[in-house]
Specification:
Blueprint lengths: L18 H20 L3 E2 L5 E3 H4 L4 H7 L2 E3 L5 E4 L4 H10 L8 E10 L11 E10 L4 H18 L3 E7 L8 H7 L2 H15 L4 H12 L5 H12 L7 E3 L13 E7 L7 E7 L14 E6 L1 H10 L12 E3 L7 H13 L4 E3 L7 H10 L4 E4 L2 H5 L2 E6 L5 E5 L3 H5 L1
Helix pairs in contact: 1-5, 5-9, 6-7, 7-8
The structure holds adenosine monophosphate (AMP).
Amino acid sequence: MGNMKILPKTLKGFRDFLPAEARKRQYVIDILRKVFESYGFEPLETPALEYEEILAGKYGDEGDRMMYKFEDKGGRKVALRYDQTVPLARVVAQYGNDISLPFKRYQIQNVWRGENPQAGRFREFLQCDIDTVGTSSLLADAEIIQLVYDAYKKLGLDVVIKINDRKLLPQISFKSLAVLDKLNKIGEEGVLKELQETGLSSEESRKLLGDTKALKASVDILRIREILKENGYSESIIEPSPTLIRGLDYYTGLIFEVVSSKDKSGLSLGGGGRYDDLIGMFLNQTVPAVGFSFGFDRVIEAMEKQNLFPDELSTTKVLITVFSEELSEKSIEVSSALRSKGINTEVYLDAKTKMDKQLKYADQKGIPYVVIIGPKEAEENSATLKNMQTGEQKTLPLDQLSESLK
Ligand code: AMP
């Protein structure tokens, strides 16, 4: 070891997640994964590093600027994963014969973007994506909408899924179109002003805004509504929103954006849509696809705000305290027995520590139960079980301990 003192610190835009925080993230990931799998979506993992040429030029100028690129030790030009959609396109092209279509995959991995860190914007963050590749059937779009609704509901979040159809929108420059998306944020006057900044005249701006706001739900949106109803979902889970545009210009059909129905800040909790011209980019053919990306950090934030995490997220059920050096073997024996019954069990690791300190340790770690095996208990093959929340405690035969804990 060198003798220079190194300051412990993390890079700007990169985060540590200490156990309390990491548990919350795991809680959300576990729920999402279960919902994804309940619809038959399969996991996919791709490497953090790709050849630069796979990613370069796929995310516009801004993307190229923010992408982490470097040369590896072998002189290869490489780049860090920037999203999970381009890697999916590569996989579909590379393993065509091993993948049966429609391919329904979910992917939950980190991506890296050299952005200017600010509230909710990080340089390393987790993306949770589901995509259905290889079918243009609206049943796929409807399935994703249902899944998305189920997932937010399971997390405790009441949401509205805003929906629009890109095919309805006027064929004007995407720069002007994208301004309409800000209607909720900056109001009509703001939108008209910004539309003119993109080169439209005052009259053209008014007409564009007026015409778009007046757009009726498309046939595809009406059909989605029917499918949802047939499948037992209320049609009110989707809300046709003619000025919803979304930031990416690769969408070709339906687009969705999820907002909290409670917290009307309008902050997006996730979004997606149909993009039929992207997945085939490495194949030079059209491969239709529809997908959705959960805004992981936003979801965590919204759940914190609405107090939606269970109080008890500790995965450890019980701490077996150690009464003394002589009795430590007994405690270890009991902990092994409980573990073999599928109960998450921690044994205290220092027999010299006073009992009240061991109890305090359990309390601080949010472990709901504590077992004490003193000389009397050891002699009669029993244990004292203490409920840390109520303070209640009872002594019971060892062979009843695991039943009581279940
Ligand atoms: P995108 O690939 O840009 O469509 O983003 C997909 C999801 O990642 C969205 O839900 C965003 O909210 C989220 N996201 C994008 N950039 C960042 C960032 N720098 N930090 C955290 N989340 C982000």
